[in-house]
From TrEMBL:
Catalyzes xyloglucan endohydrolysis (XEH) and/or endotransglycosylation (XET). Cleaves and religates xyloglucan polymers, an essential constituent of the primary cell wall, and thereby participates in cell wall construction of growing tissues. This is Xyloglucan endotransglucosylase/hydrolase. Gene3D superfamilies: 2.60.120.200. GO terms for cellular component: apoplast. Residues 19-223 form the GH16 domain. Keywords: Apoplast, Cell wall, Cell wall biogenesis/degradation, Disulfide bond, Glycosidase, Hydrolase, Secreted, Signal, Transferase. It comes from Brassica campestris (Field mustard). It is an enzyme of class 2 (transferase). Belongs to the glycosyl hydrolase 16 family. The active site is at 108 (nucleophile), 112 (proton donor).
Amino acid sequence: MGFVARFLVFMSLFTGLVSGFALQKLPLIQFDEGYTHLFGDQNLIVNRDGKSVRLILDERTGSGFVSNDIYLHGFFSSSIKLPADYSAGVVIAFYLSNGDIYEKNHDEIDFEFLGNIRGKEWRIQTNIYGNGSTHLGREERYNLWFDPTEDFHQYSIMWSHSHIIFYVDNIPIREVKRTASMGGDFPAKPMSLYATIWDGSKWATNGGKYGVNYKFAPYVAQFTDMILHGCAVDPIEKVLSCQDGAAEDLRLASEITESQRKKMDSLRRKHMTYSYCYDRTRYKVALPECVVNPEEAKRLRVYDPVTFGGIPHRHRHGKHRSKSRQSI
């Protein structure tokens, strides 16, 4: 079976893959088995258990890690605990990207955590890019309904050829459906998983009004219970392979249930503070995949204006250790 045929088989397995996995059944991996150091020298610390990692931002540098393999669709997850106290200007990103391979037309799927001044909560930003469409940001922002600095919480990305779903503690907070009108703006090329912490003083908090204050450093983000569950691609040999059990898990995966969708809709009404679909400063006409709700537009208007910034390009370059894979 050729690569294209194998690709189509596995794409069919991902069709409709938009609900939460039974997380307790997915394999957790050691850091060295799935990831490698990206940048930051000693500011990346692997704990003795080999499964937990601390990313540190101080006056010298931020830090980050990247998956050893490149994936074409899958489920990617980590439990994360964010820095406490004053965190304005600090950005922690958990995301998929192929900017190290496709510098001019990269794809990206982002979770970004935006720090804040003392007494104000962290915020989550989600975004997607396809085929270098960075001029068409599809950001959404949310206030958290818990304190992410007190304990670990699970953040997950489900990516198939037709859907992208963002989860917090296994509750979907955003569903992106691929539409014909999106064209190449939907991420479709193999990507690596990244996690980084860095200084986003120019934009992350109140449009850059509050920057990182290094007297509160070091800022430490903790990662554990990391999951890479999908199909890896050898970029040279073009061999596609799934981890043990992944194919069966994908066959059994179901779509978002009615109960999950009700939770997602309720959460978005209560906690979403920005959606690109309602930003008339950036887009005089809503992008074609948007379904505009006048009541939601009115509610979100009180949060304007919003300032954005991208993940620094240097954070998208990692070395991928080649692993032996069995062709499927």
